[in-house]
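Re: your question about Helix-turn-helix domain-containing protein

S., sorry for the slow reply, the queue was backed up all week. Below is exactly what I fed in.
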Amino acid sequence: MATPLPTTHRALTVPEVMDALSLSRFKVYNLIRSRELKSITIGRARRIPAESLRTFMETKLEEAA
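Result:
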């Protein structure tokens, strides 16, 4: 079951981003490591701001056009 993209001002977990992009955990962490997908760490928890996910997707769409 696909999860709709969240509203802004929300921090997503890695599994939520995996579901939104239909990617593996490994690929999501590679996007984070390469700084293509911005994230923050709070303690041991990694969070991706919803706006960062939107920006990433818009960039990829522009590149594909």
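The beta strands are 11-12, 40-42, 45-49. The two ends are 28 Å apart (CA to CA).

Happy to talk it through on Thursday.
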